[in-house]
Structures are given as structure tokens and as C-alpha cells.
Amino acid sequence: MAEWIQHLMDSMGYLGVLLLMVLENLFPPIPSEFILPSAGFAAARGEMSLLGVILAGTAGSVLGTLPLYYIGRAFGEERIVAWADRYGKWLTLRGEDIRKADDWFDRYGTKVILFGRMVPGVRSLLSLPAGMSEMPLPKFLTYSTIGSALWATLLTSAGYFLGENYDQVEHLIGPASKIILGLLVAWAVWIFIRRKKAQANE
Questions:
Q1: How many domains are there within the chain?
Q2: Domain membership of residue 18 as a residue range
């Protein structure tokens, strides 16, 4: 897969980066942790510009969220969960993953999209509950764009500065993602406690 990704970027440049990031959102086994650092290394070699890669990566990531958003909007949770349980193994997707993403969305608010876009394994799935909850499209796109831009900047810059060691980004990003996930959970717990205290005071 790595050779195919590299070939597509070499032959199509920014459009290749955009298309790969669209696919990465639809097929989680295609890793943005490899795509963008590799493109960042290409920018370091002068084959593309750093800003151009970041913009292409962000645009592709945002466009890739739309199919799942509209699927979530068109179908209810139960139908999507049943489909994932039956066919999701081809996309490494389970009905349980859909329910968890939806619970996160319902429990912790729309801001989770902003930070969730930087958590591998969660970032792609958040589009479904956003659609199922009928979150307004402009609001969804705003949060998704900001989160995707931060993620694209982080990965592309890492590949740019690491140079030939860009393939190490995939190993380094794991701990960072866990920190982000931990902060999200801590924030959610704090919101939960604050609401409980407010209800007790009432």
C-alpha cells in the first residue's frame, strides 16, 4: 500500500494528496499518518510546497467527511449499526464503533469533532453521528475544517522536518493521539461533574 500511495502522490502531486485524504476518511486502513508526512518530505525536497500540501490535505480530509455525514443523515443509527455488523469487517468497522462514536457525540457536544479529527480511529467515524444528529452542515464543516487543518499541519510539518525519517511519524503520532484522547475524556468528565453539581444546587 505504501508504494501505491507514494506513486499516486508522485504522479498527481497535490491532487493525489487530496484524493488520498478523501479515501483515508472512507477507508480507515489508508493511513493519513503515512500520506501527509510523505508529502511533507516531498515538500522538503522541493517537489511541492509545504503550504500547498497542508491545503490539499485539509481539503481532502474535509471532503472525505461528507459521504459519511450524509449517510448518517439519511439513515438512522440502528440501520447503520446493523450494516456495520454485517459488512463493516471489510472496512475494519463494527457496529459497536458506530455506537461509541454516537455516544461521544451526544454526550460531549459538537466540539469533539474539532479535536476528534486529530485522533486516528475516531476521526473518520465522527461524521456519522454528526449526520445522525442532524448537525447543521455549516457548523459541521467549520469544526471539521479547523480540526483537519491542525492535523494536516502537524503531520505534514513532521514529515518536512524529519526528512528521510518521515516514516517514523506513524510511530510517534500514537502517543500524541492518546494524549489528545485523554484530554477529550478529561474534558468530558469535567463537563459531566459540572452539570451534576449544577443539578444538585438546583
A1: 1
A2: 2-201
Extract the C-alpha cell encoding 163. 526528512
CB 145 within 8 A of CB 51: no
Helix ranges (DSSP H) in the chain: 2-12, 14-26, 32-44, 50-74, 77-87, 95-108, 111-116, 127-132, 137-162, 169-201
Q: With beta carbons less than 8 A apart as the criterion, state whether 25 and 36 touch.
A: no
Half-sphere exposure of 201 (CA within 13 A, CB side): 6
**What is the distance between the alpha carbons of residues 77 and 80, in angstroms, rounded to a whole number?**
5
Helix or strand (DSSP H, E) at 123: none
Query: Cell digits for 173?
Result: 503520532
Q: pTM, whole model, 2 decimals?
A: 0.69
Residue count of the chain, please give it: 202
Nearest C-alpha neighbor of 19 from the set 29, 8, 11: 8
Per residue in 141-182, pLDDT (tens digit) is 998 999 899 989 988 888 888 766 655 555 555 555 555 555
Which three cell numbers mark 13? 502531486
* Alpha carbon distance 157, 150 (integer Å): 11
CA–chain centroid gap for 181, Å, is: 13
Tell me which amino acid residue 36 is. L
